[in-house]
Amino acid sequence: MSKKFLFILFAAMITPGVLIASDSKSNVTIQNARIPATDGKAMYASYCATCHGIDGKGKGPLSSSLKRTPSNLTLLSRKNGGAYPSAHVVAVIGHGTSVSGHDKAGMPVWAPALDTIDQNNKLDTPLRISNLSRYLETLQVK
Asked: Among residues 107, 130, 111, which one has the least CA distance to residue 52?
């Protein structure tokens, strides 16, 4: 078995016990894994890849169980005229998003969950969100 497959399998097995999310006002619970706030790639793998996929294309192991397919995060720049929408990405990670129409199954709000990791450092959450956004910028297709 490939390492990628094993990682995805492991992530799919532990995710139900690690995070709980529903709508944009949901509670997201993360076990306090001490992933450094400066390691955007590791945070992405731990918090985002189960839905968005390790490659960021929206095909994570839990994506088929969601009401709406997660966004392909590799196309953010392309959909924004070639410029990476950093402020938008930071806002979505910090405040979540809802989708138009009847279904409110957008991305959950992650800032409260990230706040629980280091409650002694109030700058930790913005640093985590910023570094997640910077890592996503590296996934953009040219």
From this structure: 107
